[in-house]
Amino acid sequence: MFRAAGGGKYNTVSVQEAYKLLQSGQAKYIDVRTKPEFSGGHPPNATNIPIPMLAIQSFVDDVSKVAPNKEDLLLMGCAAGGRSAKACDMLATHGYTNLLNVEGGFGAWESAGLPKE
Predict the structure, then answer these.
(1) In this predicted model, what pLDDT tens digit does every residue of 17-44 receive, in sequence order?
(2) Which stretches of 1-117 are assigned E, i.e. beta strand?
(3) Helix pair 56-66, 82-93: axis angle to 10 deg
């Protein structure tokens, strides 16, 4: 179902699998794109927490407000998968243990015709 990535720190999940997890209520979707990118469309009920270039602790603090339990299942998404992979690495370093990078990001989400807001 999930493919290992990131040196074992997180797994990669397809957009279809991510959507199923969202629909089931098992996961939270954190979109790390910029606010203008997010405003242009995003997965239903996604939370926008843009990944910073330098302020890593600020990013981790913002995520902890949405997911205070570091064992919560978090779907990390961006435009194509690169920034969300970095976000997974950051969060894994800070003790998050249940991270899924959404393969292909929002571009793949749109290409698959999945619902968006």
Answers:
(1) 999 999 999 999 999 999 999 999 999 9
(2) 3-5, 10-13, 28-31, 47-48, 74-77, 99-102
(3) 80
**What domains are there in the chain, each with its CATH number?**
3-111 (3.40.250.10)
Active site residues: 78
Give per-residue pLDDT as tens, 49-63.
999 877 788 999 999
CA 99 to CA 114: how far, in whole Å? Answer: 21
Q: For residue 80, count other CB atoms closer than 10 A to its CB.
A: 16
The count of other CB atoms within 10 Å of the CB of residue 5 is: 18
Judge if pTM exceeds 0.70.
yes
Contact criterion met (CB below 8 Å) for 92 and 101: no
| DSSP symbol at 50 | P
50 token code pair: 């843009």
